[in-house]
Automatic annotation (TrEMBL):
Lineage: superkingdom: Eukaryota
Boundaries of every CHAT domain copy: 70-348
Database matches in Pfam families: CHAT
InterPro entries (alphabetical): CHAT_dom (IPR024983)
The protein's name: CHAT domain-containing protein
C-alpha cells in the first residue's frame, strides 16, 4: 500500500456502528487516527435527510443544511486528519500537498474535499489545506499510475472529442450542453484538435475515442449500485458502459444518484475502476451554469499550465481544484454548496 503514496498521502476513512477511524498511509507512515466526533448515528442522520435531492421550493433550506453537514465533516474528520498529517492553510494550490481519499462504510459517498466551516473563517476548509483526489481502492490507484506510463503518444498535437446529448429520449433536455461545448472549445483553443459528436450512437463514439487523448461528455449517466462497471453514459441508442471506455480524461454529468453503503459505486469511480487514468465528474447532478463555468476554468487551467502531456498528473487535480475554488469563493455561489461540492477528481 505504501508504494502507492509516492505522490501524496492516502487517507482511508471508515465509519461503523462500533467506531470511526481514519488511516493515514504515507511512504513511511501507517497510522490510525480515532475520530470520536464522527459517529455512525450522525452519519446515518445526515444521509437520511437526502440533502442532495432538491426542488426549487426547498433548495435554500437544503443548501443551508448542507453547509452544516460540511462543517460537521470538517470538524469531525477532515481537519483532525489533515492536522495529524501536518497540513496547514495555504492560499496557493501550487504549494498544497496532494491527498487521496478512500471512504468506506457510511463514509463511502462523503465529499471530504469540500468539508469546511465557513463560519470559522474564509480559509477554514479542506480546499485550503490540500489538493484532494479520490480512488475506490489502492489497487485502482496503482493501476491508473501504471497506465500513465504505458499510454502511447498519438501525435505531437493533442486530440479531444466532445460527446454531447442536448436531448435524451426518456431523460429530458440538457439545455446547457451547447454552451458547454463552446466554452470547452474556446478554453482548449488551437493547442488541441477537437471533434464534436452530437447525438452519437455507441459504435460511433467508440470509434472516435480510439483517436483522442481527451474525452469530454455532456450527457446523462446512470449508476449501478451492484456493479460499477455497468454504470455508464446514455448516448443516442444505448448506454456506453464503463468497461468499454479506455481514455484519459472524462467529464461526466451524473443523473442518477444511488444510496451508497459500502463502496463508492457511482459513474465517476466506475470509470476509474475500468482503467481511466483521470476522471473528472460529479457525485450528484450538476447545475448547467456551474457546470459550464467549471468546465471552462478546468480546461483553461490545463492549457495555461502547458501540462496536457501524458504523466502530468498533478496538473489535472490542481486544475479542477482551482476551477471549483473560483465558484466556491464567488458571492453568488458561496453559500450554495450543492452547486459546487460534488465535483471530484479520481485517478492518478
Amino acid at each position: 500500500m505504501q508504494g502507492c503514496c509516492t505522490e501524496g498521502s492516502i487517507l482511508v476513512v471508515n465509519i461503523t456502528d462500533l467506531r470511526s477511524d481514519a488511516i493515514i498511509v504515507t511512504t513511511d507512515v501507517f497510522k490510525v487516527v480515532p475520530l470520536p466526533g464522527l459517529s455512525a448515528q450522525q452519519a446515518k442522520d445526515w444521509i437520511r435527510q437526502d440533502l442532495i435531492t432538491t426542488s426549487l421550493s426547498d433548495r435554500g433550506r437544503k443548501n443551508k443544511a448542507y453547509l452544516g453537514f460540511l462543517s460537521w465533516l470538517w470538524h469531525g474528520c477532515v481537519k483532525p486528519v489533515l492536522d495529524e498529517l501536518g497540513c496547514y492553510r495555504q492560499s496557493s494550490a501550487e504549494d498544497l500537498p496532494r491527498v487521496w481519499w478512500i471512504g468506506t462504510g457510511f463514509a463511502s459517498s462523503f465529499p471530504f474535499h469540500s468539508a469546511g466551516d465557513m463560519s470559522a473563517g474564509p480559509m477554514e476548509g479542506a480546499c485550503y489545506w490540500a489538493v484532494s483526489s479520490y480512488t475506490p481502492t489502492f489497487k485502482a490507484l496503482q493501476y491508473a499510475r501504471e497506465r500513465a506510463g504505458t499510454i502511447p503518444s498519438r501525435s505531437d498535437s493533442w486530440r479531444a472529442v466532445i460527446v454531447a446529448m442536448p436531448e435524451t429520449p426518456g431523460a429530458g433536455a440538457l439545455p446547457g450542453t451547447r454552451l458547454e461545448q463552446f466554452v470547452v472549445k474556446t478554453a482548449m483553443g488551437s493547442s488541441v484538435s477537437i471533434k464534436t459528436l452530437e447525438y452519437p450512437d455507441v459504435a460511433s463514439t467508440m470509434g472516435h475515442l480510439q483517436e483522442c487523448n481527451i474525452a469530454h461528455f455532456a450527457c446523462y449517466g446512470v449508476s449501478n449500485s451492484f456493479d460499477p462497471s455497468s454504470s455508464g453514459l446514455i448516448l443516442q441508442t444505448a448506454k456506453t458502459a464503463t468497461e468499454e471506455l479506455k481514455k484519459d480524461i472524462l467529464s461526466v454529468r451524473q443523473n442518477q444518484v444511488q444510496r451508497l453503503s459500502d463502496e463508492v459505486l457511482h459513474v465517476v469511480s466506475g470509470f476509474q475502476v475500468a482503467g481511466f487514468r483521470h476522471v473528472v465528474g460529479c457525485l450528484w447532478p450538476s447545475d448547467d451554469e456551474v457546470c459550464v463555468d467549471i468546465a471552462k476554468s478546468f480546461y483553461a487551467e490545463l492549457i495555461q499550465c502547458g501540462d496536457l502531456r501524458v504523466g502530468s498528473d498533478r496538473a489535472t487535480a490542481v486544475a479542477l481544484h482551482r476551477a471549483v475554488l473560483k465558484v466556491r469563493e464567488s458571492s453568488k455561489f458561496r453559500k450554495r454548496p450543492l452547486l459546487w461540492a460534488q465535483y471530484v477528481h479520481y485517478g492518478a
